[in-house]
Please model this.
Amino acid sequence: MRLLIFTFIFGLWIQPTDAQHYSEFSSTIQKLYLYKGEELNQLWNNLVSANSIPLVAHDSAAFLFRGEAKSVAWVGDFNGWGSSHNYHNKGVRIPDTNVWILKLSLPKDARLDYKIIVNDNTYLLDPVNPFTQWSGVGGGSQNSEIRMPGWKVDSLTSHPLKGILKGQVIKDLFIDSKAMGYQLTYSLYIPVSYHPQEKLPIIYVTDGYEYMHERLGNMIAILDNLIHLKKIKPVVAVFIDHREPVNRSVNRRIHELAMNPQYRNFIIDELIPLVEAKFPVSTDRVNRAIMGTSVGGLSAAYFAFTKPEVFGLAGLQSPAFWFKPEIYGVCEKAQSTPVKTFITTGLINDAREGSRKMKSVFEKKGVTFEYREVNQGHSWGNFRDLIDDMLVYFFALNE
Model:
């Protein structure tokens, strides 16, 4: 009887396909320890050709590296790129081979960035893993990507759908700001399908260069896809670039986005009037959004809760509230609030603590908001995956 009960409970806990995959996972690791010479070579080549490294099954993962080394370790979102000690990250050499292994338990729907460290000082992309994610300010750089079995590629955010009409993108428009005392640039997305007399909703996007970048936010393709599928209304997007126009290697985002009232004045008093004078956009706050990630998410909250008469919609992706904790007081004391707020965070060394604290603030104030948590880290893979959900929440066609 006890055996029958255990079998029933185990069947509920791990579905047959999961159990089969875990059995294959364990069997492969066992073979890596048992095989030598040509048998090991054949096994390794089979794993590489099947894009099976890292090995994953259910909530188990095994990072693998093959090569001569004194030490091999792995860093990434899972351990805060070395800052978190919740995970042991040192690989173990399999005896009598040049194969190194690190086994971890990860959420079964996680998608995480990582790199390999060889001999304590050489950071490498995983040479046998074709999946990568670009991350970082100003275009970023590549990381390798581990995809757990429960995570699936979102076709709406990963690439343009075939055969669709694309909106117009006007890049690198200049504006001389009196508020900031220097020149800035922005780019503009105009949807392909709208009536010439129609006043379109609009979204202002901080870290605009990264949000536009095909390898990072890929937001142009996401807008085209959603509009084509009639999931959202045609929307204009303003992508604000924080890089110096003359020297693009200099990024002013921290200065501009860390609750800077001068920068807020630039957006409200200079950029918005300029855009509204030149392009067919709505001037109603319920159709005007501000959006950003990390410190840009902090800035979006600051803009929307100090000027809700300007911004009726606020998108906060992995917001860096820790950078300016006074933002909680700003939102708590706001006399009025945005029409809608969308807040997202990864659960793995991202902005979970601060986002949950702000969620409590929103609940107490009666803010209308959507809140999402995903098993990812502070990465553009995370941010990009949720852009479509945010846009639909703000601009759904059936509203």
